[in-house]
Amino acid sequence: MKNYDWIEHVKGTSKFADDLPVVEGTLHAGVFTSPTAKGKITSLNIAEAISHPGIKAVFTAKDIPGKNQIGAIIADEPLLADEDLHYVGQPIALIVGVEEYSIKQALRKIKIEFEEQKPILDAREAFEKKELIIPPQIFAIGDIDNAWDKCDLIIEGTADTGAQEHLYLETQIAYSIPKEGGGIKLISSTQSPTAVQRCVSRILNLDMHKIEVDVQRLGGGFGGKEDQATAWAAMAALACNLLNQPIKLKLSRQEDMRYTGKRHPYSSDFKIGLKTDGTIIAYKVDFFQNAGAAADLSTAILDRTLFHCTNSYYIPNVKATAYSCRTNLPPNTAFRGFGGPQGMFVIEAAIHKAALKLNLQPFEIQAKNLLKENDKFPYGQKAINCVARKTWSSAVDKFQLAKKINYINEYNSINALSKKGIALMPICFGISFTNKMLNQASALVHIYTDGSVGISTAAIEMGQGVNMKLRQVASRIFSVDISKIKIETTNTTRIANTSPTAASSGADLNGKALEKTCLILRERLLKAAEELLKTGSNEELSLNNENIAVNGIKSNLAWDKLISFAYTNRIPLSAHAHYATPGIDFDRSAAKGNPFSYHVYGTAIIETTVDCLRGIYEINSIETIHDFGHSMNHIVDRSQAEGAIIQGLGWVTLEEIKHSSNGRLLSDSLSTYKVPDIHFTPDKVSVEFLENDFASEAIFNSKAVGEPPFMYSIGAYFALINAIMEFNPHIKIKYDSPLTPEKALLMLYEGKELNFSTPRNK
Amino acid sequence: MKRRISFICNKNLVEAYVNPALTLLDFLRKNERLTGVKEGCREGDCGACSIMLGSIENNSLKYEVVNSCLFPIADADGCHVVTIEGINEIDLSPIQKSFINEGSTQCGFCTPGFIISLTCYLISGKQLNYADAIDSIGGNVCRCTGHAAIIRSVKSIMDSFINRNAGNEKCIDYLISKNYLPAYFKDIEIRLMNLKRQTVPEKLRNRLMIAGGTDLYVQRHDDLILEEEVDFIFNTGNKIYTENNSCFVEASATASDLGNSELLKNIFPGFEDFIKLFGSKPIRNRATIGGNIINASPIGDITSILLSLNSSLHITDGLNERILPLNEFYTGYKTFNLNSNEFIDKVSFKIPEGEYFFNYEKVSKRRHLDIASVNSSAFIKMNDGIIVEAKISGGGLAPIPLYLEKASSFLINKTATGNNLIASINIALDEVSPIDDVRGSAVYKKILFRQLLFAHFNKFFPEVITPEILI
After folding, report:
1. CB-based contact A9 B429, cutoff 8 Å
2. Domain presence at residue B347
């Protein structure tokens, strides 16, 4: 089914925060940030900046009326740095002025002096220096210490994954408008309206009810606006509160890239023990997460790494330890997969390394150890309705693995400077917030007297199509046309205490709350219809195609007539309901429980070609069998899956975050940080739907789709490694993602002299 | 320093009295409230701000896509500016429909840019094909879909054009009849002819001149707004021509002019493919070769090519011209031999004859719309089995775009044997001094340069430069 939002998109009429008309007297704000990765401010002179033409005010930490604190999980992050500086780009002062360009000039007139200290940029260095955000977290199952003896082969190694810039096309933006009674209305490009509201309340020392947060839609989020839209909204609100004037704060692309956190880079140590047939007996892993300078969401992300450390494999003896390491980089934050991809990369590296030693293909080990029904994850939950093996065998058959391998072998034997590689990648991803509290949602539905419907939920539309799925929920229950249903902005005065739209759960949680609300209204309406049609107890009424059916047969009572009758008879046409995901629980102290309402599975096959002369490469195809449950919107779900896959391909190949040795971001623009473009997109991206009706806590059994397909991309890393090894079989693989063209070329020619020796016979 | 600027914006005539250095993006969004034009990066790297620019050239209307974030409003004078709002009609266009059918849009922020770029491609009047259609949106980035669904849309749109009998009907009329364009496009040509462009100002000394703006607006956007005296150089007329066995390219010729030049294609077969590695379509439509030279980037694409063609710069102060070989122009990192009252007028090189080879190699992290880690260009002329001319250049290997003096001269009067060619590669490696930066480590760049030299010779002399040497 087509997505109604898309009609506005293709016409350019969808309204993003920067597109809304501004009100009279609107001022702009710019942010002055730390030039150093670690230091102490010794003096800060804002006098010259204040007297710059067109500048209204400069605010610093001391102007904050409430608490200078924005940390959502751990209170360790000020809105504006007061004395200590923790990373390059940390906000220090806010400049407010009439024109954006004069703010840029005034920013250069703030004079700062500071004592510089040596920054820590690397997670392992932070670990050595005991700079941990929280104590180490451990997940274990079986008896790891006694398991090694049972193994025929034990392999150890390291595996690293890099940071990733979200690169939502719409940069961070907030617009704050003063309201009566000292209140504030905030238009914010956030995935977490309540987080913004709570933070502004703390910063301004105002009750939460005085702060209204309203969100129409985001120009992409990917997790980057889950926690990190908050600070910019809080700054706009601060200036708005102090000046009593509307304030718009929008980051430029470069500011956004410099000031905001990324996907967490991880460095990990693994030890894996197997039988000679490839059965995995034991797996030990230590994750060093580079959290950046403050906790942000790092601890929750660390959890998800542990939950996904064995991917879709059953391993009887596991010990996984994770360290969240404090460094002097901008606080790293949520990004599609939320630590899961980082955990899964390591087990895949361990399997790859073991396969080389055992003289097996990696996919032979993968296939052998895939989860079966009722197998236990390291956190104790059982795999239920597990389709790991089903997606695998479907992929092997449907995409003709054997034929592909033959073709690749032949290709490699006749091409000297071009080599192909192949890899398989199974995925298993748990759905639910691992923080139980967040697994709740509510919905508010109004039916207007003309029969049109307005819906409010906590869901934020950011491209994932949640608005369309919500429309489908109401349309199905009321049996009215999609065009009668409108999804309102997400607004904290209509829906309070919202969970962030994150963890792939937006459609599930809000869809379930909406389903409940619609059912309440449907019951009321059918009761009214009973009265109107004077039907007896043996006659069953239902809503059917904008009509009321009696025992399945169309009556002469239309939807709009029924609504009109209900209103006349003072039957409430609005309802609100709350949903809390049942059956989930997790005992943090034991690290055991059932944190997820269900898992999503799938398998991908990836083929790559490496130009062994230039070190450049192509991902030729990525073909997947993906477990969508019973997809409620194939067009939306397929596009989501494809987008996630290709975003993942960027993460393991081109997307490389680089810092100078003093912690300054070097890849701070689109000319130095490259994301996949249309030429990069593989010739073949296939997403095949494995349909099943197993997930009852998924809305209409349509499983969450936002994050899981991202992790198929990990297979592309290994397919590229396999291609490179066809050219240079003797390399020492470092398992260090992303595999940039630079790393590829250096691997292709590892162990060879720079200068050519002259050809012998020519 | 405000100026009066008149242009047709979608359907309507706009007469603005504005700072001529204001970007079209800001004018469209703030003054005209055309918010379908999005700001994504302000450096021409995302395409969210793409607009179609129609102008009269050789007495007929032509459209090209440009990044409005790097486009001074002064250059819109006398033109037709088309935003997504100017495409919208009651019925969606087939491109818009296809984007909905295939799921080619998610958050919607980049979408108008894609639709504008594709529409502009269809209006180009050229023989349409799938590869060019993809190239036309090479400057648009979609972070949500990963472009897989967009590729499906492009395929379906191109399929519907297969049976089009080109030539019988004017391209615009055809597109109007098929609902790709609103009917008002019919009258644009005549309306533009009646709307006189401002006269081209004299090139004045000591004034900042903006031609393409694709670098200046990235680096100095906020300053340009405040600059008191700015000249804008309009892009008109034929800028690539021959005279006395030399090829002349005016400094204001754009990269697209180079890529479209039949003359250059004839001299260097495949030249247009080399140019496709330069920026994106909207960037190529604006970026000038004068700008590429004066930007003095050690990794400039066109400078690298021009160096291997032994080009000369024609430098003038408005009165007198002096001619300087390009390989003597650069004196150090971003410094060059040019007085403050001078500007580059044109570039020339001798048109090669007889048996010769030319090749350009570029490796960047991303194949398209990226700045090279290393690039290299090579020109070799043979006579009776002997190399009589050799010019090799390399970018990203030194503080300046580098001409490989020693390696090039080593090859003169030698036969193209494996030994000689390999020896010249080894000599070239001693001539370069790359540094570690965001585009790669020094070690990488040196190895990569070796590989690119190998690639040149492998293309020129495949019998002697064989893969076995590498393996």
Report:
1. no
2. yes
Q: Quick one: DSSP state of residue B155?
A: H
Start-to-end Cα distance in chain B? 64
Are residues B274 and B160 both part of a single domain? no
User: Choosing from A170, A607, A688, A707, which is the catalytic residue?
Assistant: A707
- Here the tokens at position A411 are 């290709």
- Report the gap between the CA of B70 and the closest CA in chain A (Å): 14
Domain that holds residue A201: 23-118+166-259
pLDDT at B234: 63
Q: How far apart are CA A721 and CA A351, in angstroms?
A: 13
Chain A contact set for B225 (CB, 8 A)? 101
CB-nearest partner of A672 from B226, B438, B454: B438
**What residue type is B231 in one-letter code?**
D
Structure tokens at B248: 């002349």
- Give the H or E element holding residue A414: helix A401-414
Mind listing the pLDDT tens digit for each residue in A20-54? 999 999 999 999 999 999 999 999 999 999 999 99
H, E, C per residue of A133-199: CCCCEEEEECCHHHHHHHCCEEEEEEEEECCECCCCCCCCEEEEEECHHHCEEEEECCCCHHHHHHH
**B147 and A676 in contact by Cβ < 8 A?**
yes
Check CB contact under 8 Å for A754 and B429. yes
**How many other β-carbons are positioned within 10 Å of the β-carbon of residue A350?**
26
Q: Sort out which chain A residues have CB atoms less than 8 A from B410's CB and list them.
A: none
Domain check: are B297 and B442 in the same one? Answer: yes
CATH number for the domain harbouring residue B262: 3.30.465.10
Is B222 part of a structural domain of the chain? no
Whether B254 and B347 map to the same domain: the answer is yes
State how many domains chain B has: 2
Of B144, B422, B437, the CB nearest to A758: B422
Instruction: Report pLDDT digits (tens) over B19-69.
Output: 999 999 999 999 999 999 999 999 999 999 999 999 998 889 999 999 999
Q: Is residue A502 part of a domain?
A: yes
Q: In this complex, do A168 and B419 lie within 8 Å of one another by their Cβ atoms?
A: no
pLDDT tens, residue by residue, B176-218: 999 999 999 999 999 999 997 765 555 554 567 788 889 889 8
Residue from A8, A9, A636, A748 to probe the interface with B (highest B Cβ count within 10 Å): A9
With respect to residue A421, please indicate whether it lies within any of the assigned structural domains: yes
The ipTM is 0.97
Of the partner residues B48, B96, B444, the one whose CB lies closest to the CB of residue A11: B96
Q: Provide the residue range defining the domain that includes B97.
A: 3-193
For residues B179 and B244, state if they share a domain.
Answer: no
Contact B361 A614 (CB under 8 A): yes
Q: Which residues of A touch B67 (CB under 8 A)?
A: none
Looking at the structure, tell me whether residues A66 and A191 fall in a common domain: yes
Residue A46 lies in a domain: yes
* pTM for this model (two decimals): 0.97
Residue at A159 is within a domain: no
Strands (E), B68-112: 80-82
Mark whether A427 and A450 lie in a shared domain. Answer: no
Answer yes or no: do A566 and A475 share one domain.
Answer: yes
Residue A131: active-site member: no
Q: Do residue A557 and residue A664 come from a single domain? A: no
Residues B279 and B375 in one domain: yes
In total, the C-beta contacts within 8 angstroms joining chain A to chain B are 271
- Please report residues of B whose CB lies closer than 8 A to that of A759: 418-419, 422, 464, 466, 468-469
Name, in order, each residue with C-beta under 8 angstroms of B285's C-beta and a sequence gap of 6 or more.
B64, B65, B66, B254, B255, B256
* Cβ-nearest to B448 among A615, A676, A685: A615
Chain A residue with minimal CA distance to B89?
Answer: A11
In this structure, what CATH number is given to the domain that contains residue A351?
A: 3.30.365.10
Please tell me the total count of domains within chain A.
3
Instruction: Compute the average pLDDT of residues B444-466.
Output: 97
Mind listing the pLDDT tens digit for each residue in B290-303? Answer: 999 999 999 999 99
Q: Closest by alpha carbon to A685, among A646, A634, A722, A647? A: A646
- State residue A762's pLDDT score: 46
